[in-house]
Design brief:
InterPro entries: Peptide_deformylase (IPR023635), Peptide_deformylase_sf (IPR036821). This protein is an alpha+beta fold. The protein is built from four helices and seven strands; from the N terminus they run βαβββββαααβ. The radius of gyration is 16 Å and the shape is globular.
């Protein structure tokens, strides 16, 4: 089922999520399927719980649509991250343009560490402790930030935030133009 994506200004996007008990979580597999379906419908590569109105520590990522000759490693990179916790950030700070399904129409250059270590449970409730770098690390950090109530616009320069203030205000007022289902504050 395609769920509405919560748009900038909605309070759930600023909440810090809680670890879930996957053993007792109602319909976890259905939730995961719905998250992927919602993400694909919006042509995204990642989607976090708060973006669909949940205060649960879960996000999904699928980079396979971006796989090509330069990035064959993206081909099988479809993952579920439950109760994820980044335990280490390292490497150079890379500044790359990002967008977000919850902030449609805005793309900004965001500084992020090039390498992370993350602990999480997968969709089969198997624990993982993995290191990612490059674009994979960037996408994971972007989705992970949602779990802590952080949006990519919080990481850009003060000057850039001032320059997009009007666009963000429009999103808060429910003025959204995108091709997928959304839920706004108003």
């Amino acid at each position: 089922m395609i769920l509405p994506i919560y748009i900038y200004g909605h309070p759930v996007l600023r909440k810090i999520t809680k670890d879930i008990d996957p053993e007792t979580y109602p319909k976890l597999n259905e939730l995961i399927e719905n998250m992927f379906e919602t993400m694909y419908n919006a042509e995204g590569v990642g989607l976090a719980g708060p973006q669909i109105g949940l205060e649960d520590r879960i996000f999904v990522v699928d980079l396979s649509p971006l796989a090509d000759d330069d990035h064959p490693e993206f081909d099988d990179f479809k993952k579920v991250f439950i109760n994820a916790h980044i335990t280490e950030r390292s490497g150079d700070i890379e500044i790359v343009e990002e967008g977000c399904l919850s902030i449609p129409g805005i793309h900004e250059k965001v500084p992020r560490e090039d390498e992370i270590r993350i602990k999480y449970l997968d969709e089969n409730l198997q624990p993982h402790d993995e290191v990612y770098s490059g674009y994979m690390a960037r996408v994971i950090q972007h989705e992970y930030d949602h779990l802590d109530g952080i949006l990519f616009t919080d990481k850009i320069s003060l000057l850039r935030r001032r320059m997009i203030k009007g666009k963000l205000a429009n999103l808060e007022k429910g003025r959204v133009n995108c091709d997928y289902r959304v839920k706004t504050v108003r």
